[in-house]
Amino acid sequence: MAHVCLIPHPLTLLFLFFLVISPEKSFVLAIVSVDTKEQNSVDIIKQTCTTCAAKSTIISYSFCLTSLQVIPVSHATNLQGLAGIAMELALKNATNTISSIVGLLSNASFDPFALACLGDCLELYSDGVVTLVDAIGALLTGQYSTANIWVSAVMEAATTCEEGLTMEGNVSPLTIENYNFFQLCDIALCIINWLSLHANT
Predict the structure, then answer these.
(1) Quick check: 187 and 58 in contact, CB under 8 A?
(2) Total domain count, the chain
(3) Among 1, 29, 51, 117, whose CB has the most other CB atoms within 10 angstroms?
(4) Per the confidence metrics, is the pTM higher than 0.90?
(5) Would you say residue 96 lies in a domain?
(6) Residue 140 scores a pLDDT above 80
(7) pLDDT at 52 over 60
């Protein structure tokens, strides 16, 4: 008899998306002084991370700051560039997670149900990589609404994967990977939402 990981339908996970940045309210007021072309890059990183962390219960300020500052190009970029960097980091995270999943699938200590869930995670992240590449293309061409939709969609890979792996009281072997991936996407989404509002003003 086949063992199937019955991961909840994405609609049951929508509550997590209420934790994601809203493109409305006070975000523009908090970051309005940041010029998208000429402002000091270090200030852009710090203010972006401060604002995004304040508006989300998911994003850690220290994680945001550390992640963006370690990339040399982030010190000579604008907000669109920072969003792209966050998405590139998420892409790297996803590819590394795929490698981890492949390794876990060969681990004999997992029961058939856990292996089925890991197989689902592999598929979710593989699809997510393709979607992220498309989202980066949309960002670079100024299609912020499209980028928003695709980044939001790809975040389901992490939430759905984690939900499946923790079913029946199991401990997920990918909690850190899923959480970091979600944060990186949320940082990108935070910036994209502001860029979208800025482009429409």
Answers:
(1) no
(2) 1
(3) 117
(4) no
(5) yes
(6) yes
(7) yes
